[in-house]
Each structure stands twice: as C-alpha cells, then as structure tokens.
Amino acid sequence: MIPYNSIIVYVTPKKKRYIKKLTPGDVWHTNDGALAADAVAALEYGAIARTSLGMPVRVEEATLYDLLMGIKRKTQIIYPKDIAQICLRLGAGPDRTIVEAGCGSGSLTLALSWFCGPTGKVVSHDSREEFTRLARRNLDWAGLGANVVIHNRDVSAGFEAAGADALFLDMREPWLCLGQIPQAVRPGATLGFLLPTTPQVSALLDGLETGPFGEVEVCEILLRPWKPLADRLRPADRMTSHTGFLVFCRYQKKCPEFDSWLAPGTRERKQLAAALEKQAARSAG
Amino acid sequence: MIPYNSIIVYVTPKKKRYIKKLTPGDVWHTNDGALAADAVAALEYGAIARTSLGMPVRVEEATLYDLLMGIKRKTQIIYPKDIAQICLRLGAGPDRTIVEAGCGSGSLTLALSWFCGPTGKVVSHDSREEFTRLARRNLDWAGLGANVVIHNRDVSAGFEAAGADALFLDMREPWLCLGQIPQAVRPGATLGFLLPTTPQVSALLDGLETGPFGEVEVCEILLRPWKPLADRLRPADRMTSHTGFLVFCRYQKKCPEFDSWLAPGTRERKQLAAALEKQAARSAG
Amino acid sequence: MIPYNSIIVYVTPKKKRYIKKLTPGDVWHTNDGALAADAVAALEYGAIARTSLGMPVRVEEATLYDLLMGIKRKTQIIYPKDIAQICLRLGAGPDRTIVEAGCGSGSLTLALSWFCGPTGKVVSHDSREEFTRLARRNLDWAGLGANVVIHNRDVSAGFEAAGADALFLDMREPWLCLGQIPQAVRPGATLGFLLPTTPQVSALLDGLETGPFGEVEVCEILLRPWKPLADRLRPADRMTSHTGFLVFCRYQKKCPEFDSWLAPGTRERKQLAAALEKQAARSAG
Amino acid sequence: MIPYNSIIVYVTPKKKRYIKKLTPGDVWHTNDGALAADAVAALEYGAIARTSLGMPVRVEEATLYDLLMGIKRKTQIIYPKDIAQICLRLGAGPDRTIVEAGCGSGSLTLALSWFCGPTGKVVSHDSREEFTRLARRNLDWAGLGANVVIHNRDVSAGFEAAGADALFLDMREPWLCLGQIPQAVRPGATLGFLLPTTPQVSALLDGLETGPFGEVEVCEILLRPWKPLADRLRPADRMTSHTGFLVFCRYQKKCPEFDSWLAPGTRERKQLAAALEKQAARSAG
C-alpha cells in the first residue's frame, strides 16, 4: 500500500528515526535484524513492521517537516520554524514565482517547491557548484523539484529571473546584491533575508535604506518545545535559542515627501495653536 | 495595471494601513481627501497615489500576511506565526486534502486555501452557522476559497471527510472529537491542535494517550520583532507573549510492545552484567 | 594576598573551570602538572599561576554566582537566574528574616545567607535529613551560613519560625503547607514558590484562592546568553528553556467586598445611563 | 502598627496601585473619599482601610520591588528583572563596596543600597547634577541611601573610588570609561554593563578586548508573566520583549600565552599523528 520511491521514516523502540527511500528489493540492515522494503510496501503508514530478529519498527511517512530535517547537509540549513515563516511572508503557493539565492543544501528550495506545486515556479541560485548539485540531489531524493531551476551563478552579477513575485536571500553579504533585485522581481514584490548576526542585520538595513525598498521588518522566530506529559506538563529543559534574524521588506520606490507630508493647513493650525498657548501662558503669568 | 477586485493596502504618511478591495468606480474618503479606485487601478504596486487634497498614499498589494490580518473577525483569529507553522507541519500544498474545525473567522482556512491551490482541497467545519458564513465571506473577499467546502456541523458527531492527509482542530474541547478522527483521515495522517491554556493541553494529551495516536509534540511559536534601525538595532520594547499552544501528532495505532521491546538477549545480558558487578563489589569489599 | 579558605576558581587554557577551597599545604594535581595552594595564596585574584609542567592557570575569586553553581548537588538546584528574582521579590537583605522549605542542596539558602548578612536571618527546613546536612555542608564550604538555621522538619506540620518577613517554598506539593504559613510570617509578608510543572501551578493557585493570600503573580525568568563576539554578535545557539515557574503572593486576608465594591451611586448612575440610552434609541427608531 | 514614614501601597477595588509615604496628619484624597494616614497607621499590612465614602482600600507594604517601580523617573529606569540579575552577578551584599555610573533616576542605586546594608557601601556617579539630585531624593523617599555616596562627576575622568568589589556602568558609551576602571576596583572585580542596542554591545566588546578584562559574558533577561488562573492557566498576552543587554566581565590582565598554551609535547604529538595519517593515506591510495 505504500508506493515505492516514497520517503519513509523508520522509528525504532529506542525512538531513533531513520529516513530512507522505499526502493524495490532494498533491505535495511540494523543491529537488531533486517527489514525488506518489499515487506514495508505491503503495509500502510503508521503500521509496525518486524525485522528478521523481531524488532518492531514503526513505519511513518516522511512529512514535509521530516524531509526538511532529513536532507543531506553541507551547510547550516534553514530550519523549519524559519522556513514556515518565510514561505508565508513570501506568499509561496500555486501560480507564484519565487527567486532564491543561495540555495545551500536546498532546505528552503524544497519547501518552496512543495508549496508552489506544478503551477508555481522556483528560481534558485548559488555561486558554488557543489551546492547547486547538492540542492538538486536533495530535491530529487524528496521527489520534488520539477518546478525548480537552479542556476550556478553569483547573483551579485544578476539574477536569472524577471518579474518574480518574491525573492529570498540567504547569503553572507546580501547588501552587495540589492542593486540586482529590481531586474528580478515585479513592483511591490516581497523580499526576505536570513542573517545570523546583528552586524549583518545593521549592514543590510543600511543597504535597504539607500535603495528602492520599504516596509522593512526584522524579527526572530522562536520555537519552544514542551514535554508532552499531561500530568507533568512543562517546557522542555533546553531549546534552540537562535538560528538567524529574518528581514522582510517590499520593492518599492522611496518617496521622500511621503514621510514628511503634512495635511494642508496642518502647519498653519499648529502655529496658531502654539501662538494661542503662548498668549494664554503670558496672561496667566 | 492593478487588476480590479485585487485587495489593496493603502498606507498613509502616518503609517496607518487600510485594507480595501479595488472596486471599479469606488471612492475612498479620508480626512485628507478622496481617492478614486480608477486612479489606483492605473498604478503599479508600491506606487504613490494622491488624494484630492494632495495626501500621498502608498498603494501596496495585500500579501497573504495582510489578508490574514485583514479579515473580519468575530473570534480570536489564529495568528500568522502559528498559521505558518501549522501549514508546514500539516504539509498544506497542492494535491493535499486538509480537514479543519472550527473555522472561526477563517484565518487558517484562508491560508490553507492559498497553499493548497486548485489541485488541493480544504474541508472546514464549524457548529455555529454565524462562523461558517463569516469564514466564507472572508474567503470570498480575499478572492480565495474555490477549493474550500465549509460544513455547518458539530464535528463531535463526525467530520464530512474521509481519507484526508491532515486535520486541524481549533476548538475548546478537541478531546471530545478524537473518536471521529479515524473516519476522516488516512492512516499516518498528521493532526494538529491549537489550545490557549495548559489545562486544555493536559486534557488533550490525556485523550490522545487513550486513542490511536502517536508522535505527540507540543510547542509554542514566539515571534520577537526588532526595531529596524541600523545604528540602534534592538528588539522592540514589547511583543505578543502568547497566542496558544500547538499540539501535533499522527494517526497511528498504539503498539504496546513497541515501547517495551528489548532486543533478544538484552535482558539476559543485563542480568549477567548486574551479577558480575555484584560479584566484583563483594570481592572488593 | 588571597586569604586561605577562600573559594577559588581555577580556569585552564581549555576554559575548564575547577572550584576549590584554598587550603594551606594543599596541592591540586592536574594532567598538566601540580599547583600548590601556597603559591596561589601569594597571588592576587585574576592572576596567572603555573603548574609544575608550566600550564598557565587563571586564578579567579569564586563570585556568588560561582558558589551557587559550584555547590555539591543531590537535587535539582535552583538556578541563579531564578534565585536573583526570588531574592529581589522576597526583599532578602540586612535585618530581614526569610523562611525557606525545603532547602534541597542549599543553593537558595546560600544566596539568602549572602544577602541577609550578619544582621539578617534565614530559617530553612527540609524533611529529609540528608538534605539538611548537605545544605549545611555547602554553606560551610562557601564560608557562609552563620545567619542560617536549618531544621530537619516536615513543614506541613508547621514552620520553626514566627513573624518572618518573607517565605519561600520549593517543594512538590506546597499547597499542603499553606495552612502553616500564617503562624510563620508577619501580616503582609511576601511568599514565593517554585514549581516545575503547570498542573502544580494550577494546584497551588487553587490552594491560594481558598486561603488568606492575595496579589498572586506567576512568571518565568528566561536568561538568553549571547556570543560575546563584536563582529559576529548573536545569541548563543541553545539556551535553557525551562527551570520552573515562580509564583509570588502576599499573606493578607481575603476581603470579598473588596473585589465587588462599587462607589456609592455607581449602580444608580449606571441604571440611569442605561435608561436614557434606551429612551434615545426608542425616539430614534 | 504601621510605622510612620513607611512607604505604603494603596490598592483600590479597581486594582489601581498608589505608592505613598505614611506621614503623620496626611490625608489622601480620592474620587471615592479621603483616607487619613493616622487611621492607616493603626492597621497592619495587608489590612483593609475605608475612605470617608466607604471605599475599601488594601494597605500594603511597599516591597523592594514596589520601591523600584515607584521612584520618580526622568530617565528610563533599570527594571527589577535586570536589577536582580545585576545584584546577584555583582555580589551586592553586606560588607561589599559597589561602584556605579550613571545613577540616572537611581533604581539600581536603591537596590544596591538595600542589599549592601549598613556594613556595605555604594559609590554612585552621574555627570548630570539633575540626576544626582533625583537619585538622592528617591533614596531619601525610600528610607534608604545611608550607605550611598553620589558624585556629580563624569567618570570618563575617573571614578571617586578605589579597590571596590564590583562596578556597574549604565551609560551610552561605557567604552570611553574603561581606562578608568583599574583605579576604581580591586583585581578580579566583577564589572557589569547595561546597553540597549546591539551596536553598543559590539563597541563595548571591542573596547573590552583591548583592555585588562576577561570572562566576558553577554545575556538578556526575559520575564514572561502568566495569568494566575488555575483553570485557564496560560502566559499573559503580551510581555516586555526588551529592556537591555547585560554584559559582565572581570578586571584581570590579559595573558596571551593563556589562550594559546599547549601542554608540553602536545604539538609534537599532534605533528606525529598528522605524519602517520598522511603515511597511511599514501599507502592506502
């Protein structure tokens, strides 16, 4: 009942999780016996398989979350808590075109591919060929990526996209690429950035200040896990405290007058009010 | 250039945000002059419009985030930070069927509709007709909802769904509906819950313990906003501290032997080790 | 220059910290050579000592924080971040009498002893003799405790104190001891509690509701460490997410009328306002 | 029973809190009647007083926490959550001498005075006379400050202290004063800093790097309040997200060799191991 080529999570009684592709004829060898893929394929998700030595193994479908945590990594990946927020803020989804650089190991790429689906499009870039290959390999492994093109390219020389709906940069010095953004996205597009340190955030904010960008927001997403114990409910002892700062903004021209505008008569009314106050103070003194 | 019936965010120089549908012939009246929809339609997103009194107004596209924050509310809505995490954990997306109850004002419904797109499906429920109507109205307003059916139904009597990929409950006593879940979802499906208080979380964990559910996780998502000032970068003074606890699990049969299983010979080896230790202690004493 | 019997922290080039009492004639043996206490005593705090193999060792004074983290533990200790908040809320300090139960390993006892000094007093209790002895040993080791008495006593049968300024309970079921508090503290005294789980907090709140207690507050203290790197400033990757919930309140009689009181004429004014509104609605209709 | 000149908190049925000194003959006038200090003096803490119009008023002792929140402010004060951590890390207490600059409105000064008591000493500085006067007035009001001297002085020209146990700086550019610290404190002393923004933290870390300082730590303290409701226990909706970053370190000479030291033979052993590995690789290739 489980289709071949699905990604499976095997969970052992010791709660260890192994993520594997279900390939016809494969056998998974553990210290506690072997498990044949063909036997697993006859089960349904959530069922218990048995190794040759009788160990029960829970057979779970790899969810999007499992895929994101299960890809091969040669870089720090973007974590699901941040990916979730990024995908929502960028409006990933059917019919949308999202640009990304650099792809790194491809965790965000994978999620964008998932959400955009066959009618959407993901245009990814990385200047290091090692990573464009790794990201593609991870997409293939996950059975995703048909809507993704990955360019081996340094985006400080330009993106391989035009008129995109949104754009995300996960790179050390994204401020060096800001000048290339207008050619890549449509007016009003949402832009996102992930940066691990505060001096980087300051440098990016400085860069955004001088370009056609507005509605700048900075935030952190914290996921606090709890122990799922009804009678002794409480937060877990430790948690991830930091992965990175998220910056979001929109591509839109600066309008100096916008920030300084006063309604007609406002200045005059204010001057009048001030004069009246002075007068009142004088007659009271 | 901006299509009629788009949802627009108008931003004033005072940073007030007004979310409105761009309807042919409409005029938006402000204290600082009127703005005709037909004039706005000729602009592109991110441009500056002018009211009749000369006030500059930034014309922004309503993003998914803006839509979620802009719907009409008669209940506490689910917040984007939680919606993002829920949609990722449930694997919302093309080709997926997601079940939900209660829909409330429809904020999660809207995001599920966005992510699932024309090839996915959202089956929503609420026992209060007032809310099924409100959620539909909000979907219509946002130009979404073609993939959504909303049932006016108390799901403690069963869901209007079968074989769904995932299911989410945002209700006061979700433990009363757990028995109906197996009929609604496929084996291995991811289930999610939002609960504001810890006694509710404990009650739900108790309920999950007695049914065919596993891989239970509890967490909170915190979004900490920062002030976007390069030279004086720092967190905002105040933040939302709590919206709700998120609980995720999978629909899968309990397997008592799974948790208690020991590899063949483990017990024997442990007994032997203990006996040897005792003997060593005795000869040392 | 460093007085004998001081508590010293030795820091090695690998950043390992060893906390030790400076005892005349002692020698500290490490894998990288020996260090004589008498040589250390000739230094000043912050200086570098050398082992017999030439390893440089930073000689630091054990601060209050180091003492709290360095005591022998047979229980979960209360952490400095919580101790700091507790001592401030209880108003530990000269001339104050603070009651505590159970003392556990004595970390809070130690801090209370420090802050209250020779003119203050700490009255501690634990029902397990093992812990009264351990706490005393830790106080002796730290060179503190002259102002502390520790009773081997189950406080559900009463405290060995009367008229104290404040009281703190770190025990599994503090609600069982609430009836003994009035005999132990003076009217208006601040009471504090530490509890690891939410069901315990709920049970305590229920207990406080039925007794002479008011101004109840519940909070958590989170300490988020940052990496001290000027150029790559950012939060540490992981942090302690949870130690316990702190509950504070005051010993003061309930006054049912207090919560329900309305200023004379308030009800009448409200009735009049409602009547007028109705009338206005009718004439408008 | 309540001594005159005590600081009292009056709590009204609407939960408003008013902090006042109990002065003989005084009358406190409210919209709901007057309350004579002499009547309050006859009560005990926690009791209910009555205004002339019958409003019940809870009479509470001002705790250290109430004093800290109740002082007159002309600056951003340091908050109790941070003060608690600072006092613990600096080891405020009897017999200790703590140096501080600038005092601002005097909230930390007040807490240091409380914890250090008659046998300790607080030496405070501020370059603005307005604040030295305000801090003293707040100390007087609170009945504290006998152990405090406040200097109207810019500490970039030196502190009015020598050999202190610990030192705290709450100023915009503390890095300009680092050179003066060695004259003010004893070797090994703990130093603390409060800074609102990350560029300031980076600048301070740079400054500490070039001077005789070590064991640098950076952290934030977060206090998350919960709603004290047994049946609906949960965090409060909103919280203070940021007050400032705390930096702690010790005054101790840098020792370049300390950080780079290798045990005798370590380098040689490492070189040997590397050579052996190379050889093995070669013969395997």
Structural commentary:
4 copies of one chain form a homotetramer. Chain A has about 280 residues and is of the alpha/beta class. Helix content of chain A is about 30%, strand content about 30%. Chain A has helices at about 35-40, 65-70, 80-90, 105-115, 130-140, 180-185, 200-210, 255-260, 265-285; strands spanning about 5-10, 15-20, 25-30, 35, 50, 55-60, 95-100, 120-125, 150, 165-170, 185-195, 215-225, 235, 240, 245-250. The first copy, chain A, has an 8-stranded mixed sheet with strand order 9-8-7-10-11-15-12-13, with helices on both faces. In chain A, strand 8, helix 5 (about 130-140) and strand 9 (about 150) form a beta-alpha-beta unit. The mean pLDDT of chain A is about 95. Strand 12 (about 215-225) of chain C pairs antiparallel with strand 12 of chain D, so a sheet runs across the interface.
